[in-house]
Amino acid sequence: MSRACADQVEVQVVPDFCSEESDVDESRFVFKYTINVHNHSGQNMQLLARHWKITQSSGEVHEVRGKGVVGQQPMIAPGQAFSYTSRAIIDGPVGVMEGSFTCVDTATQRPFEVAVSAFRLAAPNQVH
What is the 3-state secondary structure (H, E, C) of 31-92? Predict the structure, then answer.
């Protein structure tokens, strides 16, 4: 699990290898990851966009940018959290993801970034 806090917003990440969807012979390794965004501030916030940097086993880096997460731009009230699960497909048994969420304080319309610390994607029994 990875955890990061910024601007009174906490992000927790739990990655999991999906063996049933992966194919070693095709260099296709599928991981799901569950993200929990918790608003510890006293203001409503909205998650507007995401940016992921995915480092493959081969060293190749892919960047993903887009509006919201899983088709939503959720509002998160003070003391509340929003959770979602998504997937990443990489070319080997080990990779790394990191990124950020662009959010806005809905009272002031002040945008801010919440960094998501690097987290490891690893199939079972991987030591590096």
Answer: EEEEEEEEECCCCCEEEEEEEEEEECCCCCEEEEEEECECCECCEECCCCEEEEEEEEEECC
Residues with Cβ within 8 Å of residue 48, at least 6 apart in sequence:
67, 68, 73, 101, 102, 103, 104, 111
Average pLDDT, integer, range 90-109? 95
In tens, the pLDDT along 43-60 reads: 999 999 999 999 999 999
Distances in Å between the Cα of 44 and the Cα atoms of 40, 41, 48, 73 are 10, 8, 13, 13
Structural contact between residues 48 and 67, judged by C-beta atoms closer than 8 angstroms? yes
In this prediction the pTM is: 0.89
Tokens (6 digits) for 49: 């966009």
Token pair of 13 as six digits: 């990440």
Q: Which helix (DSSP H) or strand (DSSP E) does residue 17 occupy? A: strand 9-17
- Residue 99 bridge partners (DSSP): 52, 116
Which tokens go with 104? 């806005």
